[in-house]
Amino acid sequence: AGLGEFRIRDLNDEINKLLREKGHWEFRIKELGGPDYARIGPKMLDHEGKEVPGNRGYKYFGAAKDLPGVRELFEKEPLPPPRKTRAELMKAIDAEYYGYRDEDDGILEPLEQEHERKVIAEAVEKWKMEREARLARGEEDEEEEVNIYAVNDDESDEEGGKEKEGEEGQQKFIAHVPVPSQQEIEEALVRRKKMELLQKYASETLMAQSEEAKTLLGL
């Protein structure tokens, strides 16, 4: 290694030149009917017992393997990390992935409440300012209580039950029928409950007597 880069390259080129000449002689021996030394000959090993590395037939010996640009030729690229399958990716997905547990940390919810109170306060303050400005100009307050159940007096009884077009294109139905009062409804429920109890616990004789009493009383 202390010979220097250029000297090492020259020596390595000289060795490869002798190896090519040796290969030509081995090929010629095979042509003349001799053994195939390229196939049966021993492998070329370095001092560590490893096969001499090479690239396209050119071998690198000793310190030549550590020359700039040579080391990179024999460095193996790291294998890419294995890609996870769709099933493996879905194993890590839970409710927290979709944001359903954002409030569990106790931080987000108070921040949202504080922001909500701030927005409401700003909206109320803006409404008060606009209302005071309208009153200062002498304009009437446009916010009047609206009775959604009110029916116009000019609606005749002949149109009762017919569909009417509202301001927003919605259909309204008005049926003029008598509506029982709360007291009448309670009395009807009491009578019904009495009949159910009589049917459940009274005998046939009591039922007949009850019906007879109703007839006499004109009920």
From TrEMBL:
Recorded hits in PANTHER family, A to Z, give: PRE-MRNA-SPLICING FACTOR ISY1
Q: Where in the cell is it found?
A: Nucleus
UniProt KW Nucleus keyword: yes
- This chain's protein is named ISY1 factor
Q: Which biological process terms from the Gene Ontology are attached to this UniProt entry?
A: generation of catalytic spliceosome for second transesterification step
Q: Which family does it belong to?
A: Belongs to the ISY1 family.
**Listed Acidic residues bias regions:** 139-158
Q: Which GO terms describe its cellular component?
A: nucleus
Question: Where would you say this protein principally sits, based on its record?
Answer: nucleus
Species source reads Calonectris borealis
